[in-house]
Amino acid sequence: xxxxxxxxxxxxxxxxxxxxxxxxxxxxxxxxxxxxxxxxxxxxxxxxxxxxxxxxxxxxxxxxxxxxxxxxxxxxxxxxxxxxxxxxxxxxxxxxxxxxxxxxxxxxxxxxxxxxxxxxxxxxxxxxxxxxxxxxxxxxxxxxxxxxxxxxxxxxxxxxxxxxxxxxxxxxxxxxxxxxxxxxxxxxxxxxxxxxxxxxxxxxxxxxxxxxxxxxxxxxxxxxxxxxxxxxxxxxxxxxxxxxxxxxxxxxxxxxxxxxxxxxxxxxxxxxxxxxxxxxxxxxxxxxxxxxxxxxxxxxxxxxxxxxxxxxxxxxxxxxxxxxxxxxxxxxxxxxxxxxxxxxxxxxxxxxxxxxxxxxxxxxxxxxxxxxxxxxxxxxxxxxxxxxxxxxxxxxxxxxxxxxxxxxxxxxxxxxxxxxxxxxxxxxxxxxxxxxxxxxxxxxxxxxxxxxxxxxxxxxxxxxxxxxxxxxxxxxxxxxxxxxxxxxxxxxxxxxxxxxxxxxxxxxxxxxxxxxxxxxxxxxxxxxxxxxxxxxxxxxxxxxxxxxxxxxxxxxxxxxxxxxxxxxxxxxxxxxxxxxxxxxxxxxxxxxxxxxxxxxxxxxxxxxxxxxxxxxxxxxxxxxxxxxxxxxxxxxxxxxxxxxxxxxxxxxxxxxxxxxxxxxxxxxxxxxxxxxxxxxxxxxxxxxxxxxxxxxxxxxxxxxxxxxxxxxxxxxxxxxxxxxxxxxxxxxxxxxxxxxxxxxxxxxxxxxxxxxxxxxxxxxxxxxxxxxxxxxxxxxxxxxxxxxxxxxxxxxxxxxxxxxxxxxxxxxxxxxxxxxxxxxxxxxxxxxxxxxxxxxxxxxxxxxxxxxxxxxxxxxxxxxxxxxxxxxxxxxxxxxxxxxxxxxxxxxxx
Length: 894
Hints:
Oligomer: single chain
Radius of gyration: 32 Å
Low-confidence stretches: 155-195, 297-362
Mean pLDDT: 82
Structural class: alpha+beta
CATH topology of the largest domain: Transferase(Phosphotransferase), domain 1
CATH superfamily of the largest domain: Transferase(Phosphotransferase) domain 1
CATH class of the largest domain: Mainly Alpha
Number of helices: 10
């Protein structure tokens, strides 16, 4: 029943209704004791049918009232009226975020500011053990003076029959006399629904599982997405469809919304919207830090200082009101003096904050000394214990990688007789090297770890399948990262597993104190995107960077052991900045340089060892009438992905510094005409009629059809596939195929090119997602090539018949293509600076060398890949990675 004006609820007198919603009615009221206006929310008696439930509700409300945070609506009091509880709250003037968004999308900087304030309020509640569970635009209030308030905190814990209950689109209050709820709003919770509001619930809430702090982070991600895009992330025609989208689908990239939204902002939003809670931001405090970093300012300190200055003047006003009139003039002068002092304090505090922030966050000034002068790529470098001698591994001038030593001031390097070996670490008495260095990525090797005395001697093998290693400063205790067939683990000491993941782990470093360890984690299929993790000797996480960086290239501890430095890029391209992260997870910028950086080591004296690198992915082509190969590279990254049957057009993907964070699909005539940009997507493959290319999108992974002429792109449904690789077309052009990871294993799938369900056509198979393959289906459309989980090659029948083993294929062979008549296949081998291309007869396994793929400049060539052939084998194209680096030592006085 509505309360009439003048109704008394204890010391509170109802003035006028503000609005009504699913959780009750809200009124403007007067606190007759303190003489202030408040808001009162009267909750239905049915929500608290007995004393026990009311007691539990009161406990929760009192816990929220103790938060006392500027971004959380203040609760002053609690009571009951005619059997139903009511809350007494601060009265706000302004509008809800829901009302603000009815005007359209919010500018990026303003949206980040709002989200940051919400995250800070939510973080304060989380730290008190209180989870909101129903964050949505209607529960976020924008006050007239620019503050952001989170409403209805703690009400989501109201208990009915011992279970959580669902709330509707309830608002605490809006402008006076405006309606509180919008019955036609599709975000209303439907009867009988699990806790939360449809469209803003996390996947775990949709499944009816307990909600924790990470559920609020997911909801905040949906709100930020909606603020930036102007539409809801998961909204569908019905509640059921919306919940299904939350569980199975990912919203479109914000950077594709044509609203000039930076990719870094897009990454933060999608990091909030990870389906798995373990893959989201793990605290609202970390999210707030990431948002502040994007917006370029914190805002919290300024707000607090402004409040302090205003408080000084307000205190003086209050005193003047209560004083006798004879003292009024004196108190007015005092009021003006206090206000002036407050303003001066604010100015000084802001100036001091600027100086401190500038000193902490400004990049340091370094001087540099070059140590190497050959052409090639460096594979690891470390200072010796003396802080002067430098050990490093490099592949110079197209030769195999080997280990060298040098010192600053000497232009010469000395070979140490360790051929085909990369450098992992240097301890006071020995080096850890990788024997049989196998390239994982540019400058990253995998092999058998061996220890070599610095005084000289033969390598002693210690551990197999090692990706990275480090040793303690004062002992020879080693930590390693191993690759166990796609599962990576950190061991410290060797044999004691501290951390396991299906993600690629690398760059392991032990702290100077020997009590913690840092390493990089690159999620599967993300390329160089990754986090920096710090864990202790028990495997407990100490800190992790709040978000993934576009490129992470090397980690090192500072001598004090209180922070790690790492080379990375936050926005686009390859690593061009050295950041630091302390043990609390806070970050700052140390150094910015143009180009690509790799951080190798920091000496005990604070000298920094880094390499300046140039990375390119080049593309070669040889036509039927060409006497030799010729370059068709475009910008700094050209990965050949499809060659038309007449060898007149080449499709390729670009994913480098020029493209930024998003891969781009191109088409180029093989006569050398300028490339045509087809759209966002990676590794485009021509359809049989040449009118389309099939490309791969990242974050989240899905397939897209891009027209080569007039037309619009079309995305294909994901059908539960988490990661894609090696897509292509069936001979008739009506179906596509692809390798897909459904979260448990890789298989080959077929799917209609117009959409529809995808069906698996192989058992679980082995796929290296970094190695893209196409032309996998035989010309008659009956078989598809794949390797089983043990790496054995098969032709799998698409008609459901028994698979056929492939004769004549060696372990090191990479797939090339079928011949036009289906009697042979082409394979090639990657021998770093060159690669033999073979034709293999299917019936006999007989091999014939067709060509030797060899770039004219072998220096820094690390891999041959993406070999594409015409069906008659008379023309081919391929790509290769070429990286050139120089080693520097950097000195700073800070």
